[in-house]
Design a protein that fits this description.
The complex is a heterodimer of chains A (151) and B (80). Chain A is of the alpha+beta class. Chain A contains 3 helices and 9 strands. In chain A, strands 3, 4, 6, 8 and 9 form a 5-stranded antiparallel beta sheet that branches. A 4-stranded mixed beta sheet of chain A has the order 1-5-7-2. In chain A, strand 3 (36-37) and strand 4 form a beta hairpin. Chain A is elongated and about 50 Å long. Chain B is globular. Chain B has helices at 10-16, 30-41, and strands spanning 2-7, 20-25, 51-54, 57-59, 70-74. Classes of the chains: A alpha+beta (151), B alpha+beta (80).
Chain lengths: 151, 80
């Protein structure tokens, strides 16, 4: 299940959705708002999503990863709105019978979500400037074809 | 002429100054429409850096526009 959330993410609540007696491993990833990016001091972030497509594309990421690794359950929640330093921006949780698949699947989910799901981040800097990340400062996305599905 | 709706996000929303608008266009494809809008509004992003969604699904740039379509031009994403 992939969700866009306008409210703070509660990892304990998300974890409870992963409960499964078959699971022998649970791996979770938390993406936090940090105070530096590309050498600039960050004060806060805004996240914005094209929710209708983000939830579809996020669900496709989860389905692809779950088809590739022997995963029992996988959840990803991405926050939108104004976030302060230290806040949780994205949470991924994966359960599997054994830890190997859970680690691999969790890593692959966050990598694909970052590359494909229509979510945008605006950084507000301590010096008062602000910038849409990737839109104005990095040019590598969209030069090549979109990332391919998991084989 | 076709009537379409464009929703703007992130840097395009800021550069356009609004989140959505109705547009009457002669553009035959999403690529042509973006070209028109970029000229009209001075969008800084080249079309080659964007993807496009038609009716809430990714679409090829050369797909023909249909009456009533809703389009979203998708700047480089930056989740996580």
């Amino acid at each position: 299940m992939f969700k866009i959330s306008a409210h703070p993410i509660d990892p304990a609540r998300e974890l409870s959705a992963l409960d499964d007696p078959r699971a022998g491993a649970c791996v979770s990833f938390e993406g936090w708002v940090r105070n530096r990016n590309e050498g600039r001091e960050v004060q806060a972030l805004d996240y914005e999503a094209f929710v209708a497509l983000a939830e579809k594309e996020g669900a496709r990421v989860l389905a692809e990863v779950c088809a590739h690794w022997p995963v029992i359950k996988a959840v990803c929640v991405h926050r939108v709105g104004a976030l302060q330093l230290g806040e949780l921006a994205v949470w991924v949780g994966v359960t599997a019978v054994h830890r190997g698949a859970a680690f691999e699947a969790c890593r692959q989910i966050i990598d694909e979500v970052k590359a494909r799901v229509p979510i945008w981040k605006k950084e507000h800097y301590v010096d008062g400037a602000s910038e849409w990340i990737n839109c104005a400062t990095r040019g590598d996305f969209a030069k090549g074809p979109p990332p391919t599905a998991v084989e | 002429m076709k009537n379409v709706v464009v929703h703007y996000f992130a840097i395009l929303r800021e550069q356009r100054g609004l989140a959505q608008e109705k547009i009457v266009t002669e553009a035959g494809s999403a690529a042509e429409l973006y070209g028109e809008l970029r000229t009209r509004h001075g969008f800084t992003l080249e079309g080659s850096r964007l993807r496009v969604a038609v009716n809430d699904e990714f679409a090829p740039w050369d797909a023909a526009l249909c009456e009533g379509d809703t389009l979203v031009f998708i700047p480089p994403v930056a989740g996580g």
